[in-house]
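Render this sequence as a predicted structure.
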Amino acid sequence: MRETVFNWLQFELADRRCLDLFAGSGAFGFEALSRGAAEVCFVESNAAAVQAIAAALQEFGARGGRVAHEDVFSFLAHRSGSPFDVVFLDPPYAEQCLGRACEALEKGGWLMPGAWIYLEDAAVRGEPTLPRGWTLLRSKKAGDVGYHLARRQTTD
């Protein structure tokens, strides 16, 4: 599944700013860094996961990686810095907060025009409902997982 996602994004990562929300192990963000992303901000609320990401960033000498130990919605409520080119959005399925996170990204000014957004949710929920100005480009299912690629309109 991750290989498919990165095949979709293969020409969109070099020198880009990426945001890995609900980062967990940080797999999406680390893969983006390994494929030439200039910066990845990992956002995760679990302290053990944050420590593991920070340790891996240091161990691999991953320049451009930073980790925020914070609830995703608290993080998104306080915008700082430049908007992102690519966002990985993989919230816990039980929380059913994918739509809320998409709206927070859009309303908070977190996305560059033309930003790519990877979304993952329980497959039984089908295609995600997206904010105005986002287009769903691809959708696939792997077992119980639905994964999707959307793009934000290219002009504000």
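Summary. The two ends are 31 Å apart (CA to CA). The chain has one domain: 2-152.
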